[in-house]
Amino acid sequence: MWGGRFAEGPSAIMREINASIPFDKALWRQDIAASKAHVAMLGAQGIVTAADAQTITEGLDKVAAEYEAGGVPENWDLEDIHMTTESRLAELIGPVAGRLHTARSRNDQVATDFKLWVREAIDEVDAGLEALQKALVAQAGTHAASIMPGFTHLQTAQPVTLGHHLMAYYEMIARDRSRLADNRERMNRSPLGSAALAGTGFPIDREMTAKALGFDGPTANSLDTVSDRDFALDYLMAASQCSLHLSRLAEEFIIWASQPFGFVRMADSLSTGSSIMPQKKNPDAAELVRGHAGRIAGCLTGLMMTMKGLPLAYSKDMQDDKPPVFEAHGLLALSIAAMTGMVAESDFKTDRMRQAAEMGFATATDLADWLVREGDIPFREAHHITGAAVKLAEARGVALDQLPLADLKEIDSRIDERVFKALSVEASVAARKSHGGTAPDQVRARVADARAALGME
Ligand code: ARG
Description:
It is elongated, with a radius of gyration of 30 Å. The strands form 2 sheets. A two-stranded antiparallel sheet has the order 1-2. Strands 3-4 form a two-stranded antiparallel ribbon. It contains 19 helices and 4 strands. Helix 3 crosses helix 6 (106-142), helix 3 (28-44) packs across helix 8 (206-212) and helix 7 (162-187) runs antiparallel to helix 10 (230-257). By secondary structure, it is mainly α. InterPro entries: Arg_succ_lyase_C, Argininosuccinate_lyase, Fumarase/histidase_N, Fumarate_lyase_CS, Fumarate_lyase_fam, Fumarate_lyase_N, L-Aspartase-like. This is Argininosuccinate lyase. GO terms for molecular function: argininosuccinate lyase activity. Pathway: Amino-acid biosynthesis; L-arginine biosynthesis; L-arginine from L-ornithine and carbamoyl phosphate: step 3/3.
């Protein structure tokens, strides 16, 4: 394809280090689509004849059918998917195939193909995340009033509802989706027609190819266009942040499924056994989601390192852009599917969660708040009084609301029998009805908002 000025062919090592076909064959659909848009434009502009444009278009359809049927024959001499497609086209339709590359370079071609691929990846991830949100919202609706301990420092803090906890992840995923939507909009400009780096002297119509490929219009600067991989980095950043959320959710399931917690029974379909310990049921899927988050972040930092020192415009380093994006996308798509199944199919042990909420003095803040409200005591003093009550309950091995009133009165005479109402875990969550709080009514309201946003009714 470029041998005109060379006396010798490349060495075996050159061929091997240069070949991107082993991975960029994944771009074949995008490569065909971009070539068809390009040749239609060349025909419309009279840069190639209508007859040649038609021959080339039909040839590209045949190549596509071959890819579809049998995959890509990997010939390292052909370097990449672009040369592979063009070479097969030439075999099928003869020398007219050579007109396809008029007013185009592999530099704008690869940027176009890759953008199309990333755009689809965004859409696929977004659909997966929507399904995950629906699973979260369904469980949250069921468990709007199921009480569990809320933690800070993984120490029992205050009672919350399971619905509230699950809806926290709904919010994280909503931010992930908005990040992806934002990336999609920013990237949706067509590189095609930037040619090698400087544009072209042929009278091309970049609006036409942009429109044909679903872009909002052409990019503005040819040098920037062929050396821009921000769209890939944006995707990897969004994927990394999303994978952090999935990893944190996975971690919660791992903790909740452990025997000392016993908050959840994971679906058999997403667990594995042990070859030696018959009683074991291991949360491997959740652990792998947690592990994959590290690999996805590695893909992001990898591509950042590839790009950081490159002068304008294209350099071959940029061929290394695809493996991290492909890898991260595969890992992310699987992680989303695994977490969706885990959320939808887990059996939450609400009795056990409630019991745990009743232990650990989760309503201590409610006692302090009661003293402030009913006794007009400054919060700091109320905190101190409550600390004494917790100390006594701990010494006796009982819950706060099991302390006799007489003992509470000894700690502070302003306490009376009405306090017991505030000390139950139900009263505790019901009281937290500030906007976005854990009260079941608040959770139900947020679930209703989410259902409407997801079109679930
Ligand atoms: N396979 C190359 C890549 O993925 C295509 C662009 C090649 N351009 C070039 N000037 N050699 O980046």
